Amino acid sequence: MYTLKNIAILDDPYGLEQVNCLEKPVxxxxxxxxxxxxxxxxxxxxMVQSYKVNYYxxxxxxxxxxxxxxxxxxxxxLGLKLKCDSDxxxxxxxxxxxxxxxxxxLVPANLKELYYSAYYRTSDWMHIYLLIAYNAKTDLYSxxxxxxVYQDFSNYYKFPMPTDTLNRxxxxxxxxxxxxxxxxxxxxxxxxxxxxxxxxxxxxYMLCFERLDEPFLEKDILLEAIETKELPQNATRKFFxxxxxKEVLFRELNNFFEGFAIDEAIKEEFKKISNVAWCNSxxxxxxYLSAIQKELRQSK
Length: 300
Fold this sequence. Notes:
Layout: H1 23-31, H2 35-50, E1 51-53, H3 54-58, H4 66-78, E2 82-85, H5 91-100, E3 105-110, E4 126-135, E5 140-145, E6 157-162, H6 163-176, E7 182-185, H7 196-209, E8 211-216, H8 217-228, H9 233-259, H10 264-299
Antiparallel strand pairs: 1-8, 2-7, 3-4, 3-7, 4-5, 5-6
Helix pairs in contact: 1-2, 2-4, 2-7, 2-9, 8-9, 8-10, 9-10
């Protein structure tokens, strides 16, 4: 039987440039139902962030805010509903009702309002807190987070959060960063068993046959820079982020292939092809970006 005690710290190799602070808490919650959910979530979400996949590209979903895009990907590809609510009478009561039902709760926050954050009073910054318990005597929530630890690699740890602090930083995320509401999974609706093979096949089919003929999102960034004769810093960051996303996508696919009962030669061939595809894409696109940056500098 599922309980919130199933939620544990993830041991994964990804930094925030690969799996960000909004994706990771969702992944930790998913991992508590079945360890394959996190990997499958990463595969499908990173594919949408990396390539022009027909459905998502035509509806511009790849450009949506992360916490608007994630529920769409989860429901469409994995049949999982990450629900969002903003219509409730009492902040704490709403959260506690879900925790009492063993439903993981994810609360958006603006780190500019959090005194121990690196963004305190300097920059608005969207974040997500995964809540797993509430102590009525101390009025503290138990969360999984990394903000309280200053280190190069962002590991998640259990950490207490006062209700008034959580409420304040949540309200700021709504007012300043347009957060949609509080998210949760209904644990009694999440299947603990899944057909990994079928879902990986589904991803591979999408990757091979549901991409546009010109599938590279990074090309759009370069074309826009040429047309506008500008390449702002956030566009450059988005450009290089795509290669981090592809790295996660192919790494997770390779991990699944390692566990499948298929010919070792096929596994090795896929690993080789994916490595070459990722490295060649990064090398060629980076060269194009450098050339465009040089051209733009010379034209000014």
